[in-house]
Amino acid sequence: MNRYVFYHYLIVCFSNLMILVPYHLMAERFDGSVMAIFLSPIFGVIMLYLFTAGLSKFPNQGLPEILSHFYPRWLVGAVVTYKALIVGMSSTLVIASYAIVITRFLNPEGNPYVILTILMLVCAFGATRSTVTVNFVLEIVVILCIPAIAFIMYKTINNPFLKWDAVQIVLNHYDRMPSLLAFASATFVFTGFLNLGLFNRILPPNFRFKYRWTFPLIAFVVQFITFFVPIGIHGTEGVANYVYVWSATADSARMIFGFIERMLFIFLIVLINLSLAFTMVGWHMVIEYIRTLFPNNKVDPDEPKPPRRSYWIVAVLVVLTLIFMYLTNELNVIYIGGIFLIIRMISEIVITLWVYALSKKKVRKYEKKISV
């Protein structure tokens, strides 16, 4: 079961390519992004250990069940609704960004709303399945994508156009203090553990979080490559000319003896799998969080048939995503994405510390009961 925790960490780790994290880091590459990248693993390790230590005291329970032990229903409902909004916004940004990327690089004459609708229908079907089923689908997607991601990173690092002098120039600005946006962008890659706020329901009661130290280490390596490789290929100034910088970076690599010459096509295939999996998991979490607001809701991580209310919730998510796509453009998405990253980081800190504090409160309550 420990591998499923790893999959949730990886899907968020790899999805930072689609949620404009590289763009915000590149924008401040001379003004604090380097220090933010080197400080972010410390933040990631602390948050990971606190959150998993807190969840270990509440086996088979998600965030709504944990809060319901200590607080009235109205407060639990407010927190769960806020959590659903945060998760839903991240999924919307990912799927909308990918619809723009696939329209621009694969089918410039295509209708982005049609492409987005097709992607969302696939995500909606997966999101309405049971929690156990969503976990299994996530495992399949991550296992299929890891070799391709490793190959893409290998090809880009060995790109003859990569100039390490440009990387060194940016590294020389390591002493610049990061802005709040740069630090929030750098820490996003370490936040996959927050999915356990729902998926802790399917972990066995005697589950122990093992090899936690490997999670931030892998995330840091991915973050380092994600940031510095595009700088080495496009240059310290040229890298700022791209919104989705990794699409252009992948397109700079070639497979001379491959049946597909352009690495971009492999990159986009990997992205579609990651974006669908990320959105499916995010929307499933939103569905489960919203369902807890209904009276007499039954928590069943392996329910054989989705209830009708799940379809209504995901239909609202599809409509809201289409409205978001219609009302915004790329510049607005960048601005909204920056605000979202800051709000998300603050929310992560609050929820992590909250769950950890509640776990200590439960232990004290249990010890008090035993002493009596």
Write the layout of secondary structure elements.
Layout: H1 2-15, H2 21-27, H3 33-55, H4 63-68, H5 73-105, H6 112-127, H7 131-157, H8 164-171, H9 180-187, H10 196-199, H11 214-234, H12 245-251, H13 263-291, H14 308-327, H15 330-371
Helix pairs in contact: 1-7, 1-11, 1-13, 2-9, 3-9, 3-11, 3-15, 5-6, 5-13, 5-15, 6-13, 6-14, 7-13, 8-11, 9-15, 12-13, 13-14
Structure description:
- This protein is mostly helical and 372 residues long.
- It has one domain (2-295, 306-371): Up-down Bundle (Amino acid/polyamine transporter I), CATH 1.20.1740.
- The protein has 15 helices and no strands.
- Helix 1 crosses helix 7, helix 5 (73-105) packs across helix 6 and helix 5 packs antiparallel against helix 13.
- It is globular.
- It starts with a helix and ends with a helix.
- The relative contact order is 0.22.
- The mean pLDDT is 85.
Primary descriptors:
372 residues; Spore_GerAB; 71% helix; GerAB/ArcD/ProY family transporter; 15 helices; Amino acid/polyamine transporter I; mainly alpha
Run of helices and strands: HHHHHHHHHHHHHHH
Helical amount:
over 70%
Proportion of strand residues: under 5%
Number of strands: 0
CATH architecture: Up-down Bundle
Number of structural units classed as domains: 1
Amino-to-carboxy terminus distance = 36 Å
Which class do the helix and strand fractions yield? mainly alpha
Output the number of helix runs.
15
Largest sheet: none
InterPro entries: Spore_GerAB
Protein name: GerAB/ArcD/ProY family transporter
Transmembrane segments: 7-26, 32-53, 74-101, 113-129, 136-157, 177-199, 211-233, 264-290, 311-328, 334-358
Keywords: Membrane, Transmembrane, Transmembrane helix
